[in-house]
């Protein structure tokens, strides 16, 4: 499924892998984030931290009419404040998508799937 954006000159279609790469880079650059995990965390593998080429497994993009939302699935480091990490992720993802892709996100949902001790 691709995100379709209607402009004055026509329609723009962005594949989910493109958006997931930008979102994944914004997420993993935040302090306290150990990595991204699959949205099917328990079904796939509990210990599997995603690498750059697999970010699309940890990002869920949905479009309902003109509303576009992103869900990200992460593991955080023990001893960090989870609420602050989530707020930073929301701001970074929203900013990067708006600056690099040119459309606004309505929601960025952060799902913390686990806490790990370094």
Tell me the series of helices and strands, N- to C-terminal: EEHEHEEHE
Task: Count the DSSP helices.
Answer: 3
CATH architecture: 2-Layer Sandwich
At the first level of CATH, what is the class? Alpha Beta
Pfam family, one: Asp23
Family: Belongs to the asp23 family.
InterPro entries: Asp23
Reconstruct the topology from this structure.
Elements: E1 2-7, E2 10-15, H1 16-28, E3 33-36, H2 41-44, E4 59-64, E5 67-77, H3 82-101, E6 107-116
Parallel strand pairs: 5-6
Antiparallel strand pairs: 1-2, 3-5, 4-5
Helix pairs in contact: 1-3
Textual characterization of the structure:
Strands 3, 4, 5 and 6 form a 4-stranded mixed beta sheet that branches. A two-stranded antiparallel ribbon has the order 1-2. By secondary structure, the protein is an alpha+beta fold. It contains 3 helices and 6 strands; from the N terminus they run ββαβαββαβ. It has a single domain, classed as Cation efflux protein, cytoplasmic domain (Alpha-Beta Plaits), CATH 3.30.70. Helix 1 (16-28) crosses helix 3. The mean pLDDT is 84. Belongs to the asp23 family. InterPro entries: Asp23.
């Amino acid at each position: 499924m691709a995100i379709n954006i209607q402009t004055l000159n026509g329609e723009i279609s962005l594949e989910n892998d493109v958006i997931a790469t930008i979102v994944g880079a914004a997420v993993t650059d935040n302090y306290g984030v150990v990595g991204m995990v699959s949205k099917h965390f328990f079904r796939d593998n509990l210990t599997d931290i995603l690498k750059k080429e697999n970010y699309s497994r940890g990002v869920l993009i949905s479009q309902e009419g003109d509303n576009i939302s992103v869900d990200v699935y992460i593991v955080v480091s023990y001893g960090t404040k989870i609420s602050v990490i989530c707020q930073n992720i929301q701001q970074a993802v929203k900013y990067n998508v708006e600056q690099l892709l040119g459309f606004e996100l309505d929601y960025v949902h952060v799902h913390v799937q686990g806490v790990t001790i370094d």
